[in-house]
Amino acid sequence: MKKLLALTLALCMVLSLCACGGTKTETKTETPATEAPAAEPAAETADVKTYNVGVAIYQFNDNFMTLYRNEIEAYFKTLETETEKYNVQIVDSKNDMAEQSNQIDTFITQGMDVIILNLVQTSSADAIIDKIVAAGIPCVLINREPLGDNGDESYAGILDNATVCYVGADARQSGTFQGQIVADLENHGDINGDGKISYVMIEGDPENVDAQYRTEFSIKALTDAGYEVECLADQVGNWDTAQGQQIAANALTQYGDQIEVIFCNNDGMALGAYAAIEAAGRTVGKDIYLLGVDALDECVEMVNNGTMTGTVLNDHIGQSHTAVDVAVKALHGETIDNYYWVDYVMVK
Ligand code: BGC
Hints:
This protein has 348 residues and is α/β, with parallel strands linked by helices.
């Protein structure tokens, strides 16, 4: 009898062990003892640090800066770990410097750990950077480079502060590429063969030095290569498609077939200029050339199908990733440089 009882008990134990074998509890205890304790306390006890990041964009209503800001947000997400999170707040400064100044005050009051700033007015850089530095917050300036006093020197507000830097692309390069694309054409942009390249220039907002540099260096590339140029019209379209269209339409009405090349400081305005060119019954690649900068998807497609002569990649991915990487460095208390440059790439 005792023997039978012992056997039954043993059988029960075996059965209950087998039953447990499939459960999660059992799976856990099967994990090698050395691994489990190491992983669990880390997840349970380590502090999760959330950094507050304030981003002010000069205006949301801008094709290029929309790609740029979306990429800032997306890239911060990819950098999150179990222990480090980023609470990213992006505000629209609506192309209004007073509004942006208030937004920066709010960021400071909210205790942002870093600020990424796309200035509305580079001419107001001093006042705004002083506030950020005084609050002890690192600042990464993007897209609109403040210049030194005589226009083409490095800006003291960056050089004087170890926690302020600029991330951007040297717009002289993009202008030069635009000019080179025209110089490389078989007729070098001189469609009517009168010995000169007659062009219209549509400029971006002068608060961004990119506008000045692209205007100057696109033409310089042509004159440096020995070509004669004639400027028929040169107007500010503020990076805006509708304004680009209006300026191009007026120029086409006024100068007609004399216009051989339309240079636009960005693709947004080139899209507008293209609409005007179409409406005027002109054909890109045949009786007129059209250049932009940024390499927006739709413009790369136009270059590929011949409805745009060329554009220049303004690498928003490279720039936004660099800006975020530098911001993270600053958050970790690492030393940052004053300037970070990302190359342009010719698209033709
Ligand atoms: C871009 C423009 C954009 C501007 C905003 C430039 O670098 O090429 O498309 O509108 O930045 O500041």
